[in-house]
Amino acid sequence: MSNIIKTEEEWKKVLSKEQYHVLREKGTEKPFTGEYWNNFEKGVYKCAACGEVLFESDTKFDAGCGWPSFYKAIDKSKIIERDDFSYGMHRIEVLCKNCGGHLGHVFDDGPQPTGLRYCINSVSIKFEKK
């Protein structure tokens, strides 16, 4: 369950149109267009909707998919993973536990040590440089 509860009208006031589409309507930005797909500076990635710290730059890698990819979340208790059967396929959706915002999906084709690839929309996160 999410800790932050807002109406859709409240979310529309605090998120850009693109952020709202991804975070609240489970949209996806086009690959290789997001702000962070090719960012490898040191820092942390926070939820764009609520500011929860979700990923560290040390776990980011180039998956060649066009979206920021991480092999682990900073703390699994800060995210929700759930089955997504949209578009006639089975994927695992990743949401921010604090606000319920849609972040992207996680796949089992990532590097070691986890073998996971958290494929996250740039618009759903904010980078804070260390």
TrEMBL record:
Cofactor(s) essential for the protein: Zn(2+)
Cofactor binding: number and manner: Binds 1 zinc ion per subunit. The zinc ion is important for the structural integrity of the protein.
Molecular-function GO terms, alphabetical: peptide-methionine (R)-S-oxide reductase activity; zinc ion binding
One GO cellular component, as annotated: cytoplasm
UniProt keyword list: Metal-binding, Oxidoreductase, Zinc
Gene Ontology biological-process entries: protein repair; response to oxidative stress
One Pfam family of this chain: SelR
Enzyme class (EC, first level): oxidoreductase
Protein name, entry field: Peptide methionine sulfoxide reductase MsrB
Gene: msrB
